[in-house]
Amino acid sequence: MACWRNRSALAAIAALALSLAATPAPAQKQYSPGASDTEIKIGTTTPYSGPASAYSAGAVSATAYFAMINDQGGVNGRKINFISLDDAYSPPKTVEQIRRLIESDEVLFLVNPVGTATNMAVVKYINQKQVPHLFIGTGATVFNDPEHYPWTMSWTPHYASEGEIYARYILSAKPDAKIGILAQNDDLGRDYLLGFKRGLGDKASTMIVSTQSYNTTDPTVDSQVVSLKTSGADVFFIVTIPKFSAQAIRKAYDIDWHPQEFVVSVGSSIAGAIKPAGFEAAKGIISAAYQKDPADPQWRDDPRMQAWNVWMDKYNPRISKSDYYAPYGYNIGYAVVQLLKQCGDNLTRENIMKQASHLDMELPLLLPGIRLKTSPTDLRPIKQMRLVRFDGQRYVLFSDVLASD
Predict the structure, then answer these.
(1) What family does the entry list (predicted)?
(2) Would you tell me which of 180, 197, 246, 371 could form a disulfide with 277, CB atoms 3.0–4.6 Å apart?
């Protein structure tokens, strides 16, 4: 009898073992530095000071977005610890701050560090450390290079592609244009000019009558604008960050020079460029956009814009609703949260990058028809834009969605 009971017990144990083997084990949590059961640590650098301080509104807005998410319980139960450091738009300072974020703060990944020259100063180091370098605040083509920089992906549409869009428009609207250019003397300026000249094709050499450059350490661009007027240009292509966009627009107006002006998207902020220049001085300027303008009445009844306005009032009141970088930071924050949700409990740097290279999502404040889409061979999230014209109060859309190569 005892023998029978022993055999029955062994059979029951065997059956239990088989049933346990057939039951999937819960997925094991996996973490890289910067992630835990309670926290996800993310870092960025931005110019809270210096010549490009207008850009800091993006980091302030992203910080406010993460504050809202944390109030709602975080992402999969984890709070976001967003560490945002000032680099003054200075590459040596960026090197110092990025090293601190990776080696001392041990962030899981970096999101939207701002600037072309600043990111160039750290991209090799970040990739050697194999830290995801996501949604960076530049559209320089060098940052879409999965072969050499597999941990890096931009956010802003490529400058060269945007430059080509303006050139194509000028060829169709004013084929006899005499073009004067003011461009930042770095990779930002060079990329825009590369695409612009590519768009003009063999007409570039005759249509461009003068090109002037400036450095971000220059106090003003007044003399360059005077030289461009003297060249006889009737189109003014302004390839600048907001501070110098404002100076260029204002100086042209003050010297009674009224060409058709184009200002690149990264220098077009109403709060950072147009308002300081003066609304009357900026009337008629053409730029390009990929996100909704909160001042555009067509979005008044848009539920996503209404939600943004409520969020701005509660979480981000220090930034003007007319600031280009308020919806920008909100979109960045939204994309980061969706990415983290996709990662689930596998919060390794490898999985962060894997998910980031397979994005296909809408964002609340992107223009209709424009969405985030990446692949392992093309890490540009945003590839489309629309032309806009400043009517004296706000930017007005006037083109269809234009894809960039």
Answers:
(1) Belongs to the leucine-binding protein family.
(2) 246
